[in-house]
Write a structure and sequence with these properties.
46% of the residues lie in helices and 10% in strands. With 335 residues, it is an alpha+beta fold. It has 2 domains: 6-93, Orthogonal Bundle (434 Repressor (Amino-terminal Domain)), CATH 1.10.260; 111-266, Beta-Lactamase, CATH 3.30.450.
Amino acid sequence: MERVDRTRELGDFLKSRRARLRPEDLGLKAYGTRRRVSGLRREELAMLAGVSVTHYTRLEQGRSAGASDAVLDALARALRLTGDETAHLKRLARPSASVRPAPPRPEHASRSARRLLDAMTEAPALVLDRRNDILAWNRLGHALLAGHLDSAAPGDPAARPNLVRLLFLDGHFRELYPDWPQEATLAVAALRLAAGRHPDDRRLAELVGRLVIQSEEFAARWARHPVRTCTSGVKRFHHPVVGPMELYFENLLIPGDSGQRIIAYSAESGSPSEAALHLLRLSTHSAPPSRPGPAREDPVTAERSRRRPGAAARGDTEAGAAARGDAEAGAPRRR
């Protein structure tokens, strides 16, 4: 899959949107009992949009370049497209002048972006490129999403994890997201938008091609042409270390034309999710060098013990005292 074929993409996108509408839903009378197509026929859509059937057919077949805003907006209204879908339609119908793409070079998070992530000690955060490759993450972001992977992986372009690939091909992510089907559909919809905006991105096209081959679930969703962006909201997690959490997330676009963005997560103040996130932060603290003596409790166990009734009467372990100190100070211990 060398690049996105916009002619085919435009036709497939319009057909998929015709297929999801029924004539009776739009106040049209369905003539005849046998219909060869699901959803609207071309002539029905053309009538609703106020354009000729010939003009619409040429557009769907990719033989009508430079369609006007008026025509595309009329089609968008008739097809009941969202704002994201309308923008996607216009990009497919009026592609910019094709230029010979430069050979892809590995991307990296800027030094300032990595510093910002490191400063966010109480919020999981990561830097993504437009393909959803993870370019950097802070300690808590790594622990939240992919503690089973090497924390240094984002720094190596050859081993760099990709969020969409992990979502479909890594069993850990299916367990991490209780709402996995919705997360998967949203990921494909966002990738569709990226592919429409960057049709000459060879690495993006290769990612899509591999996922279509390796995952039937991805292929089925990709064929439905979902198009949607989601810049903020709430995600549910079931973390293997600290259990269930509901976290707010925000996408912050990094200025420039790289398409890189920062995703940061946070919990509602005073909520069980905030407590779980605090425990996860404690679990990321590096243990001090081992020395002879009694075994130390890990920070998560110590914190849970401290919260149980009667824990103080049984005496404090060294790790339990350290966990309390972190909780009171609200900052990680110095390493």
